[in-house]
Each structure stands twice: as C-alpha cells, then as structure tokens.
Prior knowledge:
Layout: H1 2-39, E1 44-48, H2 50-55, E2 57-66, E3 71-80, E4 88-93, E5 98-101, E6 112-120, E7 126-136, E8 143-151
Parallel strand pairs: 1-3, 2-8
Antiparallel strand pairs: 3-6, 4-7, 5-6, 7-8
Amino acid sequence: MMLSHHCRVYxxxxxxxxxxxxxxxGRNRTSTTSPLAASAxxxxxxxxxxxxxxxxxxxxxxxxxxxxxxxxxxxxxLHNRTNEPLLLTGTTQHCDCVALEFDPQPLRxxxxxxxxxxxxxxxxxxxxxKTIDLHWAxxxxxxxxxxxxxxx
Length: 152
C-alpha cells in the first residue's frame, strides 16, 4: 500500500511539473511575440504598389460617427511596396474639413510611415463623403482617399 501511495504522489508531482512547465513555455512565447506586435505601426494600412503608382488608386477611410463641431484624427500607415523611394509632395482636398499631416521625407522601399488624416466636423451635419488626393513626385496619378463620416 505504501508503494502505491508513493506512485500516486510521484504521478501528481510529475503532472504538476508538466503543467507548470507548459505555462512557463506559453508565457515565454507570448512575451517573445508581443514586442514585435507593439513595434508595428498602428492604423489603417495603405499599400503603395507599382500599379497604384502607375495608374493611380483609391482607398476608403471611415471615421464612423462624429458630433458636429468635433475634430478627429485617424492614423494611416503608408507602406511602400515598390522598388523605388516615394516622395509625397502634397495633397488636394475637395473640402477644408479634410487635411493630411505627413513627413515630407522619401519613403524607402518596404518602409512604413504613419500619416495623420484629420476631419473637422465643425459646421457639418449628416453623412459626409469627401476626397483628398495624395500627389507623388514623378507620378502622374494621385492616390485618392475617400473619407466617409456620419456627423450627428
């Protein structure tokens, strides 16, 4: 009887050890991946491809619901997927309520950079659908961003 008691204790200790080891391994795996996730730029990603730079392109940015008089800023991540540096030279907006804050430095191939799209809902009500064109050095066609906002 004494031998079986020792076997049960040994099995219990082994089981607890395996569970604790598994928890420790899982914790290490999580901590290894979390810094990578934290270093990734936050915001809606816009891929800048060769075809987009050649023919132009478009994307939709949704702000959702806003109150009249509110100003909202949405981060966007521009990701250069071309083989050449891209230089954002300016914007053309079709309403003063939309503006883009950006760094005028070249965006190297495979580099990502955060820009900030601002929407000013002062004096506006109802559904708003605005555009802003991003112009690139040496490119004929802009990237058009459609801005979708519902102002209450």
